[in-house]
Amino acid sequence: MNQHIVRIQKVIEPLRQEIINHKVYSVINSLDDLKVFMQYHVYAVWDFMSLLKSLQIGLTCTTTPWFPVGNANTRYLINEIVAGEESDADGAGIRKSHYEMYLEAMAQCGADTTAIHKFIDTLKKTGSLATAYETAGVPQEACEFVDFTFKVIDGKQSHLQSAAFTFGREDLIPNMFISIVGDLNKKFPDQLSLIKYYLDRHIEVDGDHHSHLALEMTAELCGDDEAAWKAAEEVTVASLQQRINLWNGVYKEITGTE
Q1: What is the rounded (10 degree) CA torsion for 126, 129, 130, 133?
Q2: Mean pLDDT across the stretch 62-77?
Q3: Residues 6+ positions from 223 with CB-CB distance below 8 Å
Q4: Rounded mean pLDDT of 11-36?
Q5: pLDDT value of position 212
Q6: CA distance 162 to 76
Q7: How many Cβ atoms sit within 10 Å of the Cβ of residue 247?
Q8: Contacts for 156 with CB less than 8 Å, ≥ 6 apart
Q9: Three-class SS string for 8-58?
Q10: Residue 183 backbone dihedrals phi, psi, to 5 degrees
Q11: Nearest in space to 102 (alpha carbons), one of 190, 194, 171, 173
């Protein structure tokens, strides 16, 4: 494997372990606890799609007239990932983005989708994240998480966007959480079948096929540039810290602690 990728994986392993073993999972003991988790997590599901589309815009031609942009292999890699994330098949074989699947899973289990819908509607109208946060009452930790993602997006540096996407967003759903959802699904099969499908699909596609494509894409973009790899490492560390902070917010919400 690419020595630079190995180095980043080694550097971030303590942070990955902190996320995978985060105390938030130990307090998700009921359907209501899971609803709180989803009401925070949905913002990460949404801005993941924004990061993905920003990569596609930077690495391919998305305007007319069309001209070839960049490296054809990199174009293939990002387009392959976008196709799977933006137009996957749900459990009934109907094409949907993973974000839309997640919203349906929230609705099925009774999680409140009012805030995320209000956030999206306001953002469409105003183009202002700050206004959308305030109007929808988005939790502070979720605001900071999304702000960081858009800082990376707005930087318009594809290798950093790719690093944040590849190392900071993939392969972070632990077996512990899968087991919790599986156990709750046995008690509430009519309310959690969609979130179980979403998680299973995420692991099947994102944790395997897409993660390999993303690693290859990051390697293509950073090449032999040591400075690019160092910056990629730094943005990855910051991305993972944001995830920890988001989970800290969920934990505080569920437990009522500071």
Answers
A1: 100
A2: 93
A3: none
A4: 93
A5: 82
A6: 14
A7: 23
A8: 58
A9: HHHHHHHHHHHHHCCHHHHHCCCHHHHHHHHHHHHHHHHHHHHHHHHHHHH
A10: -65, -45
A11: 194
Cα separations in angstroms, 138 against 41, 70, 192, 236, 237: 11, 37, 24, 24, 24
**What confidence category does residue 189 fall into, taking pLDDT thresholds of 50, 70 and 90?**
confident
Retrieve residue 106's tokens: 């929230």
What is the structure's pLDDT at 213? 84
The separation between CA 222 and the C-alpha centre of its own chain, rounded to angstroms, equals 22
Q: Which region, left, alpha or beta, applies to residue 186 given φ > 0 means left and ψ of -120 to 50 means alpha?
A: alpha
8 Å CB contact between 180 and 28 = yes
DSSP line for the chain: --HHHHHHHHHHHHHHHHHHT-GGGGG--SHHHHHHHHHHHHHHHHHHHHHHHHHHHHHS--SSS----S-HHHHHHHHHHHHHHHSEE-TTS-EE-HHHHHHHHHHHHT---HHHHHHHHHHHHH--HHHHHHHHT--HHHHHHHHHHHHHHHTT-HHHHHHHHHHHTSS---HHHHHHHHHHHHH-HHHHHHHHHHHHHHHHIIIIIIHHHHHHHHHHHHTT-HHHHHHHHHHHHHHHHHHHHHHHHHHHHHHT--
